[in-house]
Amino acid sequence: MPLYGEYEVAVLGGGPAGIAAAVAAARAGRRTLLIERYGFLGGMGTAAGVTNFCGLHGNVHGKMHRLVQGIASELLARIDRLGGLNAPHLVLGKIFAQAYDTAAYKIAADDLLAAHKVDVLFHALGAGVVMNDGMRINALMVETKGGRRAVRANIFIDCSGDGDLAAWAGAPFELGDAAGHTLYPSMMFRINGVDPDKAGEAWRTIPQLMEEAERKGTHKFPRKGAIVRPQRHAQEWRVNFTQLARADGSAINGVEPEDLTRGEIDGRRQAVEAFNFLRTVPGFENSYIIDLPPQLGIRETRRVVGGYQLTGEDVLACASFEDSIGVNGWPIEAHIAGDVIFRFPPIPESRGYNELPYRMLVPEKTENLLVAGRCASMTQEGQSAARVSGACFVMGEAAGLAAATALSGNTLPREIAIDKLQQALKEQGAFIGRDQAVPVGV
């Protein structure tokens, strides 16, 4: 098999976790390759049309703070310079999210990686691994237009979202709840031609209009709690309205090709039905669909088992950890059959965020592998909070810097000195909780 290249750090997946991991490793002086299946970066944020950063902020004793700093701040600044970043907006009256333009995100991510001299391989789909002794990855195989290639590295970081690399390497993982049911996926879409003056704060009235339409029998919706919000330009809105299920009502399985195929087709059908309803809402009469994203929005597949699994209790109790590498301020967001359930820590009584332990990035039964992003070590409830982009940026930056730290000390990732990693993260502008002052501003 042809060898594409040999690197010190190889990252699979170019979403928020992969972007941050690759930049962190390269900035620490390590020759780094980022491998991405599409021709652009951003993960679900661009490929699934999410167009909205969740988890960058936290409600700290009733006041909003942007808790995710470090490499995420560098990326946001680049998006903002391109005119592609909205001001943060309030969700459910309790937490901030922040919309962005997907084209600006793609361009900004390219620029960020180039500035830190990260090698990038686009249009390369991970296809398997070659193991050295059952515990150590020798090479990652990728499928490209030029055929299958091998990538060798000292340390690999799985930011695939689905835990592909970890599963191929034999790391244990969980899939769904006790019955194997995962969080439901959605097909996002964007519309243009909205009259912002007539639409007003339509995101407040649309759920009630949906209930009225169902009572009248004019429309039937796959779930409650549709999210319809404006983008950078007020005539363009993003729509999170759909929910994809199998024939038996359980969630589409994002690692089953037949399920994915059905989900893509049904997702587009649901998008059209949702749009037909939106055309009845004041301000949306002359709107039109401008984008159906390249893929279905997957929220949960494999969750790799590491040294610690972040739990829902950790999220709601705002847990602290001695080996914290950053924080998550997003609540539990459970996409269950027909509904979306949010559960927050007590507000304003609590600090509103939980710390994320380094152990959740270190899978069991592998030596030269780290995992970051939605496939990191979490229970389903924990993952429903920390799967969002803010926490993924945090985990990715820590994983990339941990890989560089392990290489510097000629040790395994699980054996690095955590205090040195924490100090390095803080020196690079990250907020890891612990004894740090909460960042000021949003």
Descriptive account of the structure:
- It is a single chain.
- The protein is of the alpha+beta class.
- The protein folds into two domains: 3-178 and 300-427, FAD/NAD(P)-binding domain, CATH 3.50.50; 189-291, no CATH class.
- It contains twelve helices and 22 strands.
- It has helices spanning 16-27, 44-47, 71-81, 102-115, 164-168, 196-199, 202-216, 257-278, 312-316, 380-386, 389-409, 418-427; strands spanning 3-12, 32-35, 52-54, 57-60, 63-66, 89-91, 95-99, 119-121, 125-131, 137-144, 147-158, 173-175, 189-192, 227-230, 237-240, 288-291, 302-304, 324-328, 332-336, 339-343, 354-357, 369-371.
- The strands form seven sheets. Strands 1, 2, 8, 9, 10, 11 and 22 form a seven-stranded mixed sheet that branches. The protein has a four-stranded antiparallel sheet with strand order 14-15-13-16. It has a three-stranded antiparallel sheet with strand order 3-7-6, with no helix packed on it.
- β9 and β10 form a beta hairpin.
- α1 (16-27) runs parallel beside α11.
- The chain is globular.
Tally of separate domains? 2
Radius of gyration: 21 Å
Unreliable stretches (pLDDT < 50, length at least 5) are none
Q: Oligomeric status of the shown chains?
A: single chain
Beta strand %: 15-25%
Could you tell me the mean pLDDT? 97
- State the CATH superfamily name of the largest domain: FAD/NAD(P)-binding domain
Name the CATH class of the largest domain: Alpha Beta
Q: What structural category do the secondary elements indicate? A: alpha+beta
Q: Outline, from the CA principal axes?
A: globular
Q: What's the CATH topology label of the largest domain?
A: FAD/NAD(P)-binding domain
Q: Count up the helices.
A: 12
Distance between the termini: 49 Å
Residue share in helix: 25-40%
Largest sheet: 7 strands, mixed
In CATH, the architecture of the largest domain is 3-Layer(bba) Sandwich
Q: Count all strands and give the number.
A: 22
